[in-house]
Amino acid sequence: MSEKYIARSNGIAARVLDGETIVMNVADSSLFTLNEQATAIWEAADGVTPLREIVSRVICQEFEVDFETAYRDAEEVVTGLAAHGILLVSESPIT
Amino acid sequence: MSPEACHDVNVEIGGKAIRLVTTDPDFQASLAARYRAFLNPSAAAGLELSIQLGDHPPSLPDGDVRVSFQDGQWTVTRGDFRSVWCPESGKGVVEQTANLYSIDTVLRIIHTLLLVREGGFLLHASSAIRNHRAFVFSGLSGAGKTTISRSAPADAQLLTDEISYIRRDSRGYTACGTPFFGELGVAGENVGAPVAALYFLAKGNENRIDPIPPAEAARLLLRNILFFSDDRELVDLLFQAGCDFLQAVAARRLSFLPDERVWELMQ
Q1: Which range of residues forms the domain containing residue A73?
Q2: What is the residue-averaged pLDDT of chain A?
Q3: Fold of B121-265
Q4: Is B222 within 8 Å of A20 when comparing Cβ atoms?
Q5: Exposure winner among A24, A41, B192, B247, fewest CB in 10 A?
């Protein structure tokens, strides 16, 4: 299985309010709300840490969920955020 | 041939003065009447706009508002006006017909651009002062902004029934009166007070206040802020301004009946 690397897109504004992250795509002012797990993925999206490691190190430990379930959910979150231009996804590190 | 005499009015809203200059004395009189409560001849104007009246609108009919910044100048156009101004020189022009609605829109847009760099904004909201505190009631058309303004008690000072002016300074957030009105047809009072609360309006069967999760409050607030520029830096600033505001000011949902009893909750 190939690795996935994720990075926050440019032109994104974000703030954490009461545990939820509000994200705005500045290009079109569209707004999104990230739940706690999506927020954890968002915060860890440094472009160089593989998604598998983010899930293993952050999601599984913080939310006490098994890896397979967490990774499947994380892929879904990442795909959704990438579709809205909020996250960049690549099979190689994004620097 | 001698140059035409100029006539001006100095319109101060939220502590920011903009001088409007015209060669048409009748239009100057119209401006003075329109912004009567907001005239301050002695205020230092940060911007002077020369209004050039024509018989026909300068832009395409039915054009949407377009705001752009290029080569140090802001350009704002709509079907009925074209305005260009330079923030550095503090000078600009407005080409329009003798229509107060056009200059009114120009002023609104300029104030959104001025406020955003200070963490403030214009909001689709009515607002009023009671007991030295400002209450802001936000909602889109039909939400009840004018209704709640009409039902305000005699001891309330109406700031606007349509566009609220939220200014940020070292003491926090202040709601200021504006001449921008909605169905009420009356300008607000030229006063200001610290914002006590922001309510998102919902018509209901009783008067009640309910909490709103912060994320939902942010969505509602950002949806109701007036902003026309797609400049990424400014949009980012606006987003941060909205979030900062919500961290400082209580935001609630206000369900209300269309009469004065709702004001019993605003003490």
Answers
A1: 5-9+36-90
A2: 91
A3: Rossmann fold (3.40.50)
A4: no
A5: B247
